[in-house]
Amino acid sequence: MPFEAWQQLVDMMNDHELFSPWHRGSTDVCNNPSSPIELLCLGVLRYLGRKCTFDCLEEMTFISERTQERFYAKFIEYGATFLYDTYVVVPQTPEEAQRHMFEMKLAGYNGALGSMDATHVVVENCRFGLRQIHLGHKLKQTARTFNIIVNHRRRILSSTGGHPSRWNDKTLVLFDTFLDDIKSGKILSDNEFILYEYTDNGEVVAVTYKGVWILQ
To answer: What Rg do the C-alpha atoms of the chain give, in angstroms?
Structure first.
């Protein structure tokens, strides 16, 4: 992560109520300064990216394992709520949708909003009783699967929650509310695009459609 992005993340966390026990200037029950949120944030990123354990982080940062665990739980909640709602923005109007369609139009996919696929994330410490439903056909390891829609600039437009990797794409897509809203016409039904088709006489004509579609 670039330093500027990390510093911006830390500043945002210092302003959020979830992290109030570790805000700058906060103290614990003994009136000692709280653990620095910058160091806790680096510990969480190392836990997620390098598979460090909390007791290893305690040895590296001199911050207790219990504090690391508490901060991690808040960080995951923060990512699933505030960060997701801030940076994963579902286009609601044709004007917003057009921002994601430029590359698709260049490739000849008029009306395509983005690409969709089921993405599997390995779960190394899965409970034995849940092992079978978390074994799918794509990976040999246990995993959770997410139905994710992205534009051609790798920006996430929508994602479902995590589900067992035994579920295939046809089942997983049933839990995608963004696709349901597109299919039902709740959103983006007034977006217009042109496709070229052959008539019965072999002539090429321009046909106007409404809505959007997703590549899979």
So the answer is: 23
Kindly state the tokens that stand for 85.
């709602």
In DSSP terms, which residues pair with 163 in a beta bridge? 145
Q: Which tokens is 96 given?
A: 């917003």
B/e letters for 42-60, b = 16+ CB within 10 Å, e = fewer, are: bbbeebeeeebebebbbee
CA proximity to 210, closest of 108, 114, 94, 103: 94
Tally the residues of the chain: 216
Q: What is the pTM of this model?
A: 0.81
* Amino acid letter, 78: Y
Per-residue pLDDT of 86-133, as tens digits, reads 989 999 999 999 999 999 989 889 999 999 999 999 988 888 899 999
Averaged pLDDT, 57-65:
90
Query: For tokens 């210092």, what's the residue?
Result: 14
Q: What is the DSSP string of 80-132?
A: IIIIHHHH-----SHHHHHTTTHHHHHTT-TTEEEEEEEEEEE-SS--GGGTG
